[in-house]
Amino acid sequence: SQQGEEDPQALSIQEGENATMNCSYKTSINNLQWYRQNSGRGLVHLILIRSNEREKHSGRLRVTLDTSKKSSSLLITASRAADTASYFCATDEYGNKLVFGAGTILRVKS
Amino acid sequence: DAGVIQSPRHEVTEMGQEVTLRCKPISGHDYLFWYRQTMMRGLELLIYFNNNVPIDDSGMPEDRFSAKMPNASFSTLKIQPSEPRDSAVYFCASSFGLGTETQYFGPGTRLLVL
């Protein structure tokens, strides 16, 4: 079952703007990951943040993790049309497997 | 490495027919996962293997679904008999080390059951 909850469900922005997506989960975790899925393709891993980390950067991506609030955010800076995709968070809340959220659909208009 | 390989990429079949989906994980990865993605239910984990052994098949929807991993480089997901509600995109993914580390997804098999 889907446990992670992304917010918003859909987001439409102009090229060059920043995009922020949020993820909430229910129980303790060891790590949280973000994945991207382009239309008709498989999921691609973007970034992994561990429970003892608060912030992590990768290129134009910035991920934060607040374990006290059981939430994470993914920030994409200076968005491009190629960033148009669905973004999923995944947690290891339930043992040795990942549970994926329902995803945020991001549309970047050029 | 070529990444996770899945075949076929598209499958159209009639209700009642047997469907076999195939997956070749990344060499050296010891976890293999089968997922199903639909608009209604999102991405669901069906079953996963560790070192070719099925660990958790609680996501397999019915007895009509079965999965095998005869060796470290090959896995199959079989649906027999298929039903229209099985129409979905089926993904295979693999990972190294713990099952909760980075997973590498294949391109998926788009299944349509008429």
Detailed description of the structure:
The complex is a heterodimer of chains A (110) and B (114). Chain A is an all-beta fold and 110 residues long. Chain A contains no helices and eleven strands. In chain A, strands 2, 4, 5, 9, 10 and 11 form a six-stranded mixed sheet that branches. Chain A has a five-stranded antiparallel sheet with strand order 1-3-8-7-6, with no helix packed on it. In chain A, a hairpin with a 7-residue loop joins strand 9 and strand 10. Chain A is globular and about 40 Å long. The mean pLDDT of chain A is 92. In chain B, a hairpin with a 2-residue loop joins strand 7 and strand 8. Chain B contains no helices and eleven strands. In chain B, the strands form two sheets. In chain B, strands 2, 4, 5, 6, 9, 10 and 11 form a seven-stranded mixed sheet that branches. In chain B, strands 1-3-8-7 form a four-stranded antiparallel sheet, with no helix packed on it. The mean pLDDT of chain B is 95. With 114 residues, chain B is an all-beta fold. The A-B interface holds A 1-2, 30-31, 33, 35, 41-45, 48, 88, 90, 92, 95-103 and B 4, 33, 41-45, 48, 50, 55-56, 91, 93, 98-108.
Helix content of chain A: under 10%
Helix content of chain B: under 10%
Shape of chain A: globular
Mean pLDDT of chain B: 95
- Topology pattern of chain A, helix = H, strand = E: EEEEEEEEEEE
Kindly report the oligomeric state of this protein: heterodimer
For the secondary structure, the number of strands of chain B is 11
Order of helices and strands of chain B: EEEEEEEEEEE
Q: Biggest interface in this structure? A: A-B, 24 and 24 residues
Q: Give the overall average pLDDT of chain A.
A: 92
Shape of chain B: globular
Catalogue the unreliable spans of chain A: none
Structural features:
heterodimer; A: mainly beta; five-stranded antiparallel sheet; 55% strand; globular; B: mainly beta; four-stranded antiparallel sheet
